[in-house]
Design a protein that fits this description.
This is Rap guanine nucleotide exchange factor 4-like. The protein is an alpha+beta fold. Helix 2 (18-28) packs across helix 3 and helix 21 (601-612) runs antiparallel to helix 23 (623-643).
């Protein structure tokens, strides 16, 4: 399925509609390259840009060719190559361009390309023909600095002057004009109050005091917008300290010296203060001393606070007895004193408002804190980094493309030594062409120009790109000069000594086990210092070198399923402390969470029984060895049940396996003097649990679902919950029994091309092939014709079902319908009128319910859906349903719930013709999303926010303008959480702040696993299972399980009265009956009817 924006770009430029241009514009704005580009430039590009998809190894253009196009790389990577002789053997790869890179600027001077560009993987590019790009440049060259490197030679580049932001001072009259008249209902934020008179990149601060004006007249302070916001945040914190705990900032004397230090505070005391001051806040909470330390680190690295004594602690902010001072308390700091005067004039000194400003600025600082903490760690020498430090760096580099080709072991080792380097000034040379290679660089922030002697700038590298590696690998001189293209560039740096040691020693630490000349297991030796369950798949071993004990471990990299089972039994189940060892590392858990990918349940149980019957295969083994080996199988089974109880209880193969294993062990227990008593008791307990579970299922009966006519898949029959215990401890049990089982039934309609239909009732595990045959028989279709089942979506898109797929009715899109048709006549299928969706909004029915009550209902509903999903369902979906004989109906319903909420939000806004009512609906939806977030229901939260971010809604400028400023700011904050940059870093940081249980953003979990699956081979050389891939997948699956841990209990809204105690039933009925529009084309038409497109 092609994305809408790609479909629009695939059209000829002359055939693009207004709707196409809107879709393209909305998408281009999300790309890294265009985020800071003026909208008028992006709009012009929408008219003329052409999308191109190229395979690996395609030459885009050659060195010396005439420049005919300007390019922007959307996905993939490209190699930039040069040759001084024209011979193939002399070709040198200068650098690799990553996503978000623009190149081909020489079209502006009718020049020729100074390098060749070749794809090193499948790529997607935007191409703008020469004449079109020159036309845009002539109209908007002053807006194109972000995507064009204007100098074309090294000499011109060095002559460039650094641009900066200027702060000047004039009169207060202009301030009021620049702020504008405030409406009586709007209260500006503190940042709005300080951001005055924005004109391009210049910020003018004015003040009324004549004396100050004379003192500062003619003086210019150069600062960026972000620096001003940081200074203001620091000033607000200091102001709040003076209001609530003025004794913290005073003259102090350190025990180690007689000197008195003016206006100082102690690091640990300020940490206590910020935790206490946010403890009672409902808006923001600083939950730990580490988090507080990270907030102050942001201020510290921007020199807003600095170390006073002892000076050896001056590298970072520490939560210890160290003296610090705010720069505002330094009377010799003219810049700070100037800003203090401006802040005092423009921010009202009101205790309540200052408290609001504090929380607002703490939110801003918390967004910057993780990166500040990362930089703080990267500045530490490798020997001073803790295990927690290394884990933080490891998690960061996992999301950087430059490291994606490296194994997890190498990434882990690099995390301990990788360094941070920043360059403040533009046009600074990092290294020159011909220099000896000493470092490998990865760009964290900013951009650099790649310059070759006599050719000038050949390309510009941006955030996420790397350079300098080839010189280290090939022991060759630098092939180009690297010069910063903007100020404040930040890099990750790997020094050559570490590069050589880690990457070259990596292969030497690999152990390969062979049987009959074929590799069956590949292990990698690692030091115990790197051991960590959450990011290692390892085996811990003790050995002795020169009579001194040395700890090391083996990480399983690849192996056959049978050999890995052997390895697990021999190394994990060999003592009574196997559960303690299981808690320390993750190989066993990773294996059991992912085994359906590469081995069947039957194969697994047969392998375990084969190990158990070792005495039948080899009569020469000692009795102790035989007993230990049988116990290992029992321990394996116990942990298997602990890790995957739901799947364990539902699997029929396990029932047969348990019966046979217990029967064998009872005989062996008599034979070996009751050596298996403990294991036998545990296995019988599992069997009893499974029997009780089966009994409950029988009492539960078959549940019937209906998916025949509306958006929702509804449950038609209820289980008798009175049959089960209703204590809080039993709640989860009831939820598990409400999960969809393979024997549950579903009613659905199947349509013919003429829109006649038949209704079928089938079990969830009925294959599509059987459903097709039953439908053909009921519709009296010709048996000799080759029919197929196909989903026809509301936008006429078609999806053909595989014959082996199960539960196809739950996989439909919101307004999708199942058709039965001849394979050659699929184009003749037309949508049903009902697939267009509703024409009348329905949210007015919820006027009697508050936003919090609706969010409370949605959260309980979503939690039940999420809790019912087993992690294996994610595997079945990502790896292809047709490859597994299991259902994914619970996951399907959770995904459907997300889509319903998303399009419900869009539909309700667009179907309201009254502007004032539309604004009220928008406000209510944003408030519902906010309460969902408070309830830790991130799935519903993002469903609503993504819906309101749809281009059909976001383009309604009149509607958004009428929305309260405060609500708009809140929505902007919410929307920023779905920013896809840095692998959805902001969302992941938000997720880390919540304790389980919670409902995560389910579509992103699926996307994470899909990327891991498509980007890594399941089987490597000689058919071995790639366990590095399994480990990465298991991390996501383990997180899903962690989100379900604990009892999910949220406090009901205080507004509920006894009259509203039946409100869940009322809301359930409403959401069961809602109808939405999921056709983007129709949504855009409704949007244009509300507000015509501005030309």
């Amino acid at each position: 399925m092609l994305a809408e924006w790609i479909k629009s770009l695939d059209k000829k430029t002359s055939e693009r509609t207004d709707e196409d241009l809107e879709i393209i514009y909305k998408k281009l704005k999300t790309f890294k390259l265009f985020r800071r580009v003026h909208p008028s430039v992006i709009q012009q590009l929408c008219f003329v840009a052409i999308i191109e998809h190229i395979e690996k190894g395609v030459v885009l253009y050659k060195q010396g060719d005439e420049a005919l196009n300007w390019y922007s790389l959307i996905y993939g990577s490209l190699d930039v190559q040069i040759t001084h002789t024209g011979k193939r053997k002399d070709i040198v790869t200068v650098c690799t361009l990553g996503s978000g890179t623009a190149f081909g600027e020489c079209v502006l001077n009718d020049g020729h390309h100074s390098a060749s560009v070749i794809s090193n993987e499948p790529c997607t590019l935007l191409r703008v023909p020469k004449q079109s790009f020159q036309d845009i440049w002539q109209k908007s060259s002053h807006y194109m600095e972000e995507i064009i490197t204007s100098p074309f030679s090294l000499n011109e580049l060095n002559n460039n002057e650094q641009q900066s932001t200027t702060i000047t001072t004039t009169s207060n009259k202009t301030i009021n004009q620049s702020i504008g008249e405030k409406s009586t209902q709007d209260q500006p934020s503190s940042n709005q109050l300080i951001m005055m008179n924005k004109d391009d990149h210049h910020y003018h601060y004015q003040q009324n005091d004549e004396t100050n004006e004379q003192n500062i007249k003619g003086e210019e302070i150069q600062m960026s917008e972000n620096e001003i916001k940081l200074m203001h945040a620091g000033w607000i914190i200091r102001l709040r300290i003076q209001q609530t705990a003025s004794h913290l900032i005073r003259d102090r004397k350190h025990p180690s010296t007689t000197e008195i230090f003016d206006n100082c505070f102690i690091g640990s005391e300020l940490t206590d203060w910020i935790i206490n001051v946010t403890m009672t806040s409902s808006r923001i909470k600083v939950r730990s001393r580490k988090q507080a330390e990270s907030i102050y680190q942001v201020l510290f690295e921007n020199k807003i606070i600095y170390t006073v004594y002892p000076l050896e602690e001056s590298n970072s902010f520490t939560d210890r007895y160290v003296f610090y001072r705010f720069c505002f308390d330094d009377l010799n700091d003219e810049k700070s004193q100037t800003l203090v005067n401006l802040f005092q004039q423009n921010v009202p000194i009101d205790e309540n408002r200052i408290a609001d400003y504090l929380y607002e600025n703490l939110t801003f600082l918390l967004q910057l804190a993780p990166e500040a903490t990362l930089r703080q760690i990267l500045r530490k020498p490798p020997e001073n980094r803790t295990e927690d430090d290394i884990d933080i760096v490891y998690e960061e580099i996992m999301n950087i493309k430059a490291f994606s080709h490296l194994s997890n072991t190498v990434k882990k080792e690099l995390s301990a030594v990788i360094a941070f380097e920043s360059i403040e000034k533009k046009s600074t040379t990092l290294f020159k062409q011909g220099d000896r290679g000493t470092c490998w660089y990865i760009i964290l922030r900013g951009s650099v120009n790649v310059v070759i002697a006599s050719k000038g700038i050949v390309c510009t590298l941006h955030e996420g790109d790397d350079f300098g590696k080839l010189a280290l690998v090939n022991e060759a001189p630098r092939a180009a000069t690297i010069i910063t293209n903007e100020s404040d560039c930040q890099f990750l740096r790997v020094d050559k000594v570490h590069f050589d040691r880690i990457l070259k020693d990596n292969e030497a630490s690999i152990v390969r086990l062979k049987e009959c000349g074929k590799e069956v297991l590949i292990l990698q030796k690692m030091s115990m210092k790197q051991h960590s369950k959450k990011n290692s798949v390892v085996d811990n071993t003790n050995t002795t070198v020169n009579n001194e004990p040395t700890n090391f471990k083996y990480m399983v990299m690849a192996g056959t399923p049978e050999k890995v089972i052997d390895y697990l039994l021999e190394t994990r189940m060999n003592n009574n402390n196997f559960e303690e060892q299981f808690n320390k590392e993750s190989l066993f858990e990773d294996f059991l969470l992912t085994f359906p990918i590469f081995i069947t349940w039957k194969h697994m149980t047969n392998s375990l029984l084969r190990h158990y019957k070792i005495d039948e295969m080899n009569f020469r083994q000692m009795e102790d060895y035989i007993v230990d080996n049988k116990k290992r199988v029992a321990r394996f089974t116990l942990l298997w049940f602990k890790i995957s109880a739901d799947a364990f209880l539902n699997c029929k193969t396990i029932t047969i396996f348990l019966d046979e294993l217990i029967d064998l062990m009872e005989k062996d227990n008599l034979k070996h003097d009751n050596h298996f008593e403990t294991e036998l008791t545990s296995l019988k307990n599992i069997k009893e649990t499974k029997e009780n579970y089966n009994l409950n299922l029988e009492m539960r009966g078959t549940i019937v679902y209906k998916a025949d006519n509306s958006n929702s898949v509804r449950r038609m029959s209820n289980i008798n919950e009175a049959l089960f215990a209703k204590s809080p401890d039993e709640t989860d049990k009831i939820f598990k029994l409400t999960a969809i089982k393979e024997f549950d039934e579903i009613i659905c309609r199947l349509y013919c091309a003429d829109h006649t239909y038949t209704t079928l009732k089938t079990t969830m595990d009925t294959r599509a092939e059987i459903i097709r045959n039953q439908a053909a028989e009921k519709l009296n279709l010709d048996n000799s014709v080759d029919y197929t089942l196909v989903e026809l979506k509301s936008d006429n898109e078609r999806y053909i079902f595989n014959e082996t797929e199960l539960n196809i009715a739950t996989t439909l899109s919101l307004n999708g319908r199942i058709f039965i048709s001849h394979k050659d006549h699929l184009d003749a299928l037309t949508t049903l009128p009902e697939q267009e969706g509703t024409t009348i909004g329905s949210i007015f029915k919820l006027e009697s319910f508050s936003s919090q009550e609706i969010a409370y209902f949605l959260t309980n509903q979503t939690w039940k859906l999420f809790f019912n999903i087993h992690p294996y369902e994610f595997i079945y979906l990502v790896f292809g349903r047709h490859n597994f004989n299991d259902i994914t109906a619970n996951l399907d319903l959770c995904r459907r719930n997300f889509n319903e909420l998303q399009y419900w939000a869009i539909t309700e806004v667009l179907l309201e013709k009254s502007l004032s009512r539309r604004v009220q609906i928008l406000k209510k939806l944003i408030k519902i999303a906010g309460y969902c977030k408070e309830y830790k229901n991130l799935n519903s939260f993002f469903a609503i926010i993504i819906g309101l971010s749809n281009v059909a809604i976001s383009r309604l400028t009149q509607t958004w303008e009428k929305l309260h400023n405060k609500v708009k700011r809140i929505f902007t904050q919410y929307e920023s959480l779905i920013d896809s940059s840095r692998n959805y870093r902001r969302y992941r940081l938000l997720l880390s702040k919540f304790d389980p249980p919670l409902v995560p953003f389910v579509p992103l979990l699926i996307k994470d696993m899909t990327i891991l699956h498509e980007g890594n081979k399941t089987f490597v050389d000689q058919g071995l299972v790639n366990f590095e891939k399994m480990h990465l997948l298991a991390q996501t699956l383990r997180m899903i399980q962690d989100c379900k841990s604990g009892s999910f209990q949220i406090q009901s809204p205080a507004t509920l009265s006894m009259k509203k105690m039946n409100f869940p039933n009322v809301l359930q009925e409403y959401f069961d009956q809602i109808k939405v529009i999921d056709n983007q084309k129709r949504l855009m038409q409704l949007s244009y009817c509300l507000e015509h497109r501005k030309l």
